[in-house]
Amino acid sequence: DVDMADAAPVAAAEPQRKVEPRFNSTSSIFISSTITRPDIDEIIFCVAVVIHDRVEQGEQSSQDRRDLFPFFSEENNPLYKDPAERPRADEQKKKKREVPCEEAIFHTIQSVYECAKFPSECLIISLVYIERLSAKSHVPLLVTSWRPILLAALILAQKVWDDKSLHNADFSLFCPMFTLKEINHLEIKFLELLEHDVSISASLYASYYFQLRTLCNRENREFKLKQLDSAASSGLETRSQAYTSLFKREHKERLSQSANAIPSARSLGSGL
User: Fold this and answer.
1) Which of 19, 106, 203, 253 holds its CA 20 to 30 A away from the CA of 54?
2) What is the pTM of this model?
3) Which DSSP string corresponds to 1-41?
4) Buried b (16+ CB within 10 A) or exposed e, 221-248
């Protein structure tokens, strides 16, 4: 559990890239035929549309930029493996993957939700973190990386939202394509690239909420998820600031432990 006393003072909100999702020609057909539970399915679909567009944008990135973040790529098996250790034959066997359609992304998110049953608000928070990852560290969303990045964002979102959150080990059962070690590695790398900033102001959450609601309303459908009241908004701000402090403190502790584990030149020379 996070000690609320560790919550830092409210910081000025960082400039955030706006969510600018758009529907393609098949979206209206899909949303009409697939939505069965409006309270959750519609928001899952809206998030899927945004992710689909971000993947399309990411696939336009230069090869150099695409290669900067191998620990998010499903082609790097396991995710924490140094790509330099991958046999050249494996590189030659790689097949070009197509950008997943909105329906495929929808069903991926839905399958995780069916197992994890996290609150719907976590979908919005995870989208905030994915957008922040791109804004802070210029990480492109690619056909080979969108699922690991989405998983890391969802894990962090549900931790920030609720102390009764699931553990990483639970997600390794829900998403068996990733081992627990890979999931832990994903979370650490994701946090490093966020500069451990998981803070969310009430106004930032509201801006994403309204943009997703607008996206849904364009298809003349009702967006069932309610806006956060003042108490919930305040709680999200406090918890996210507390987790930011916690994650930064844990990062410093890991760095300190790593430094202490490296023997000094004197001790090596003396055989101590």
Assistant:
1) 203
2) 0.80
3) ---GGGPPPPPPPPP-PPP-----TTHHHHHHHH-S-TTTH
4) bebebeebeeeebebbbbbbbbbbbbbb
